[in-house]
Protein 1
Amino acid sequence: MNNHDPQMRPVIRQLDEAAANRIAAGEVVERPASAVKELVENALDAGAARVDIAIAKGGKALIRVSDDGCGMAAQDLPLALARHATSKIDGSDLLDIRSFGFRGEALPSLGAVGRLSITSRAAGHDGAQIAVAGGRIGPVKPAAGNRGTMVELRDLFFATPARLKFLRSDRAETQAVAEAVRRLAMAEPYVAFTLTDEDEGRVLFRADAEQGELFGALQTRLARVMGRDFIDNALPIDATRDGITLTGFAALPTYSRGAAVAQHLYVNGRPVRDKLLTGALRAGYMDVLASGRHPAAVLFLTCDPHQVDVNVHPAKAEVRFREPGIARGLVVSALRHALAGAGHRASTTVAAAALGAARPETAPPRPYQAGHAAVRSSAPAIAASLAFQAPGFAEAPAARVEPAPQDDGATDAPLGAARAQLHQNWIVAQTADGIVIVDQHAAHERLVYERLKAQRDANGIATQALLIPEIVELSEADAHRILAIADELAALGLVIEPFGGGAVAVREVPALLQRLNAAALIRDILDDLADQGASDRLRARVDAVLSSMACHGSIRSGRRMTADEMNALLREMERVPKSGQCNHGRPTWIELKLADIERLFGR
Ligand SMILES: Nc1ncnc2c1ncn2[C@@H]1O[C@H](COP(=O)(O)OP(=O)(O)OP(=O)(O)O)[C@@H](O)[C@H]1O
Ligand SMILES: [Mg+2]
């Protein structure tokens, strides 16, 4: 438009409803999976007990969602297609939202970008049908059908060819649809779901309705959707703080993934991709996972709807907490607590995979209730394991059996009695009903790391004063924000002071972090604060240094150990939380039950 000529005034027009709907559709319906999400959410809001979804060509040619919910009467149908028309809120309190939908936008948006037809019947009414294509609404006609609703969307984006071009292959779109259905199915264990590919006549996903109490139903549903393996390797989470409840399952660190693909977070039943919550999830696993590994978890946050604003994103994928610190703190502490409580338990998949047969029992007996206090009260074991670091280990033969006293009672301990050291790295121990194999280097590294952290927590972090304070120039707002957490940073060894204007002076740094680029660290911490409202970066860096110190300070593979030393290591592992995995998230030990070994031999 030419705006140079002051005589040529641009004209302001009121766009017609069809154009407005197409624009809204741009936000709400990005690809077939988002259309499926909207339609399934409508079915769930209608109280459906079963939802059947069919697609063709990745959803580009056809999406059909049928439900057995409350249905609509003939006179409702034109309203359902009108913009900002909804039965779910009355508009008086946008912070009291208890349904998936509330914007009254999904159906008109879908009708603006595809050929949409709705067939529905409510109890006590005749069935009816309405169709809309490219924004033009047809008449309501009588139709047959059971109670419930069937929505069919054909030729998605035929009216907006530009969007059509951005779609991926049929296979990729099918996968995205399946993922959207799985995410919704995980939170609704009492609803039955099927997803069928009409091109191939194949059922892509099916989950029958679960019965019984919620936690059990949820567990079975998650096993169905995420795989049995996930549940077998997951810790139940159940914690409440200040009116917010967190439930669900978080996998052991040894069950981590290479990408953040197995993380499903829900707020009041709604699947969300929320930076605050994914950041909290990461923080909860901070020192039990190597960077580059991602935890697997399905977590449900439940709170009064007034505590959380869901009206911040057209597709409702993001939410805003009224008190983000509480939500974040709850997730972090619940995960840390559960992981520490898992004691020395490691993933069962390793042994199970080796055996080619899943063992029904997942957790070894846990007589020692592990907690952080245990780290501090394990002084004798620490002394014993420190002895491993003493020089003077003899050159070891390739494999060696240490004759251990046969009746030492230790076989009753969870990790058993050490019987042999093989290939200078594997401790083989006998338990009451099986054998345990320990990776001595990985195990000891973890113990040294936990010990270093305990020392840090007990005595604080040693700091080193800078001869010349480093001045970091920031905006005034940023300087204000970083100075607001100066006490927390000081506790971690980073001492900062205001230096006038937007500048901050760094006076002391953690002695562990020589050659620290304080300016870069402070900017990263500020980014975290902006992103997540909190930062674990400094702690993570200190922990990373402790972790590599532990790696260098621990017994290497190739060291010969006496039976007493091996047993002391096993006992300390039982006492120390998180000893089930090394600092990089690998298991430190596995157990083979006698029954499994017998099965291997076909007995
Ligand atoms: N499967 C269904 N069963 C019964 N009623 C439905 C169904 N789908 C839609 N409706 C009715 O049509 C209305 C409009 O649906 P639409 O999805 O456009 O808006 P919404 O769900 O209210 O809000 P949002 O745009 O946030 O999804 C709903 O409020 C509901 O009353
Ligand atoms: Mg809706």
Protein 2
Amino acid sequence: MPELQRLHAGHAPAVLAFELANRAYFAASVPDRGDDFFDQFTDRYNALLAEQEAGICAFHVLVAEDGSVLGRFNLVDIEDHTAELGYRVAQDVAGRGVATATVRELCQLAAAQYRLRTLRAATVRQNAASQRVLTKAGFVPVGPADPAHLGGEPGTWYQRDLVHAISPVDRLREGRGHR
Ligand SMILES: CC(C)(COP(=O)(O)OP(=O)(O)OC[C@H]1O[C@@H](n2cnc3c(N)ncnc32)[C@H](O)[C@@H]1OP(=O)(O)O)[C@@H](O)C(=O)NCCC(=O)NCCS
């Protein structure tokens, strides 16, 4: 069964293979990463790991039993118990509920492990599949997203409150920590 794993150095070859194999597929919905991303992959990857180490981001990969990467699910700009969610899933497994199930799982993880209370995600208006994923995972539209945030395309911010994803015991602990 595929497993959601926190990104580490050992995932690098599988992440590169995933990005290369799906480059054209992703570019149809989100801005292409550009040739530099692939040319300087090791440097870029190490920079991501450094950001993760600093607690600014938390990157995850959905790993198949054979070690291949089926999807990437990232929490970025973590600040004040809030983060932005981003994701991409391999074309080979598209339309099977992979993104929806994994976003739901990441919401649980975001609350329990990273102590986040709110997740936000921006999607362009034409990306109906992504909007469907967000809606099914409990996100609601909260307003327009700046086109500069989305490669120049108009879009919408979605948001999910995670407080109910935290267990009552953890919520009590959280409350005590803030008084
Ligand atoms: C968006 C993406 C993550 C969806 O991954 P996925 O695993 O195929 O998603 P799921 O199978 O969980 O759900 C997709 C939903 O979108 C629907 N969908 C797919 N294409 C659609 C379209 N063109 N119009 C309307 N709905 C569409 C599917 O029917 C499904 O909904 P349903 O379960 O109600 O039938 C994937 O297509 C992807 O990686 N795209 C490129 C990167 C990207 O857009 N990332 C998001 C940036 S905000």
